[in-house]
Design brief:
CATH topology of the largest domain: Aspartate Aminotransferase, domain 2
Bound molecules: pyridoxal-5'-phosphate
CATH superfamily of the largest domain: Type I PLP-dependent aspartate aminotransferase-like (Major domain)
CATH class of the largest domain: Alpha Beta
Strand content: 5-15%
Strand order of the largest sheet: 1-9-8-5-4-2-3-16
Shape: globular
Helix content: 40-55%
Number of helices: 13
CATH architecture of the largest domain: 3-Layer(aba) Sandwich
Radius of gyration: 23 Å
Number of domains: 2
Order of helices and strands: HHHEHEHEHEHEEEEEHHEEHEEEHEEHEH
């Protein structure tokens, strides 16, 4: 059986190399897709090898992925999950359990971001506090954040929007000597950094997403990173049904207390948990993706610089782009374009035009979260007018800037837009 497996794997491997060498449709394509999973024969081989060998649920590849990704970002521990949303849910539950947060304690987040930044906060019984963003970076405004802090503030959850690091130094200064925890949402910012220190290593805990559109991907997937052993152990247990602490699992097989005697620890549940595990198939891809990440991010940054120059040179009457900040590395999940108020064309008409020309577009995620139908009647507190978040909701869209986007495709897009806007 073992020989047969080896033969199958070897035959498939040979064909995969040939297939991937001859297959790059993007070069023949004149449009711009939002994302392309940066896979080659290595990811395909890993999936097949692990599938054939039966490594299909959480196992050694998950451990390997946790180790390599946490090391790359600069954290001690990683806990892989089935999505970024689950990573947020688990990390918030862990913080609530460990720090004994009370229902309706407040978590400060940017108003303009993805839905499952706010939703897990509500799901665990805490309250999201929506704070406006800066137009220059699309990240949480530090000035507005200061105004939002009350006695009930227990967590600040900055999001590194579209790969741009939030101002972590100022945020960490704000919480110094206060009992406020910093939880970084890095779901859009793998490998982004401030003075070469990667985001995800500034707060007490952080969360990443490996959804298909992101800088590196396992299809669906997520990871929590931390240097805190208590948070690590709590997340391990929460990830698997609230099972007894994993550390204790290692030492002895059986558990006893007043009500159960010599019971297999795998089936001892000490808290209310979830099942949000990642599969070994996904993790085997994650290990390879992690190795490629920094190189891929450099190409994204080069592409973004090229497009930024083109837009500011030829389309500045109608469009604005976000700012560059010295020593900040923006890992460029996607490229945001802000339509100036004086532009005669609506976002809808511009995006419809681009889509008709095979250039995919999206609005800025959740726009302004407290305006969303699913959130507007839920608990939550908005600070100030959220003017910028609402402007972004109506006047911003993004296009793909992934490593397979070519200069030719970007030039074509800008030429088309110049014509459309009469610039
Ligand atoms: C800022 C942010 N947080 C959380 C998530 C959720 O990640 P996932 O789609 O893996 O659940 C996303 C999704 O893209 C996101 O952009």
């Amino acid at each position: 059986m073992k020989i047969a497996k080896k033969t199958i794997i070897s035959d498939i491997n040979k064909n995969l190399v040939k297939y991937y060498k001859n297959y790059n449709t993007n070069l023949k394509y004149d449009g711009i897709t939002l994302s392309e999973p940066p896979y080659d024969d290595r990811e395909a081989k890993a999936i097949l090898k692990n599938f054939i060998n039966g490594n299909i649920s959480q196992g050694k590849n998950v451990k390997l992925f946790e180790k390599s990704f946490s090391k790359n970002i600069g954290c001690k521990y990683g806990i892989a999950t089935n999505s970024g949303s689950s990573a947020n849910l688990l990390a918030l539950t862990a913080l609530k359990n460990i720090y004994k947060l009370r229902d309706n304690d407040e978590v400060i987040i940017p108003a303009s971001t993805f839905a499952t930044v706010a939703m897990p906060i509500i799901q665990v019984g805490l309250k999201p506090v929506y704070v406006d963003i800066d137009l220059d970076t699309l990240n949480i405004s530090v000035e507005e954040l200061k105004k939002a802090i009350t006695k009930r503030t227990k967590v600040i959850m900055p999001v590194h929007t579209l790969g741009m690091p939030a101002d972590m130094n100022k945020i960490n200064k704000i919480v110094k000597n206060k009992k406020i925890l910093v939880f970084e949402d890095c779901c859009e910012a793998h490998g982004a950094s401030i003075k070469k220190k990667k985001v995800g290593s500034f707060g007490i805990v952080s969360a990443f997403s490996f959804f298909v559109a992101h800088n590196i991907t396992t299809g669906e997937g997520g990871m929590i990173l931390t240097n805190d052993r208590k948070i690590y152990n709590e997340c391990l247990s929460l990830r698997e049904f609230g099972r007894i602490n994993q550390d204790k699992l290692q030492s002895e097989r059986y558990y006893s207390d007043k009500k159960i005697k010599n019971y297999d620890k795998r089936y001892v549940f000490t808290k209310i948990g979830y099942n949000v595990r990642m599969t070994d198939l996904q993790a085997s891809v994650g290990v390879i993706q992690t190795k490629k990440m920094d190189k891929l991010n450099k190409i994204r940054a080069q592409n973004a610089k090229y497009l930024d120059n083109l837009i500011n040179k030829y389309l500045s009457k109608n469009f604005m782009t976000t700012k560059y900040i010295k020593n900040y590395f923006n890992s460029r999940y996607t490229f945001p374009i802000i339509i100036k108020k004086n532009c005669k064309y609506s976002r809808k008409s511009i995006c419809d035009f681009l889509e008709k020309n095979r250039i995919q577009t999206r609005p800025m995620m959740g726009g302004c979260l407290p305006d969303q139908p699913g959130l507007r009647y839920e608990k939550g507190r908005s600070v100030g007018s959220l003017k910028v978040s609402r402007l972004i909701k109506d006047y911003c869209f993004f296009v793909g800037i992934h490593p397979f986007v070519t200069k030719k495709q970007m030039v074509r897009m800008v030429k088309l837009l110049r014509k459309f806007l009469n610039e």
